[in-house]
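Ticket 4471: requesting a sanity check on a complex prediction with N-(5'-phosphopyridoxyl)-D-alanine. Repro inputs:
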Amino acid sequence: TLIYLNGEKVDYENAKIHVEDRGFLFGDGLYEVIRVYDGKFFYLGKHMERLKKGAEQIYLELDFGPDTLLETIKKAVKESGFKDASVYVQVTRGTAPRQHAFPSNVKCTWLIIVREAKPQPQEFYENGVEAITVPDERWTRCNIKTVQLLANCIAKEKAKRAGAYEAIFHRGDIITEASSSNVFIVKDGTIFTHPANNLILHGITRFAVLELIKNNNFELREEPFSKEKLFAADEVFLTGTMTEVMPIVKVDGKIIGDGVPGKITMKLIEDFRKLTE
Ligand code: PDD
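Returned structure tokens:
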């Protein structure tokens, strides 16, 4: 593990932030998780774009400059020596006496953690995994990748306790996304996924997979779909930086389709692999 805090390389024991950092007190910060495959970044530019956009939306000034962040990320990955890595990037509004309104003249806290990435077990992709559904109890600005992830953590913990891989959120009757991935279903050859609005994170992997879908000329509809439609789907799969393209074969104990990863899912997994080779 290699850590850069505010642009300085620090060892694990000394990687510390102040108790009044607003990330700690208020969850007042943003993050990204970026994957490196064989020394190459996967859509690094898109991650930087999303971070910048999120910063604008929460009135956070990235005072260190986006180029500094980008260069430090590249330097950190190089120094780590890891060919396959996950890069965790977090930026908070910085340290100031606790008060809700934003402080002035405060510098951002920014953190980069590089870890070696282990691929998930191959059998997950071959056999598929299980999911549960949980109510989407998050706020309504899920497009902003904030570090306020308690609802996501509770959802994932519920999945873990149920022996499932992921928790799929429903807001009322509508399936939005999952605790740390986006959700797609296939019905009669048409692929459905929730539109990229304020109710979901606009996943970079989601974006990459939409391109693959277009290249295959698969029928795609970016529109909300119901929980009922999820259970009636022929195929269900997730997308995410660490999840990649993951087939779901059971939801809430009910078998999806034939109970094995579907044809379209398998093709997208294959195409996705090619992107990362
Ligand atoms: N999670 N939806 C949510 C709620 C997420 O937290 C994530 C990513 C995604 C997928 O986005 P992307 O394809 O850009 O990784 C969708 C990261 C990996 C995490 O929290 O660790």
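Notes from triage: The domain at 122-276 is CATH 3.20.10.10 (D-amino Acid Aminotransferase; Chain A, domain 2). Leaving this open until the requester confirms.
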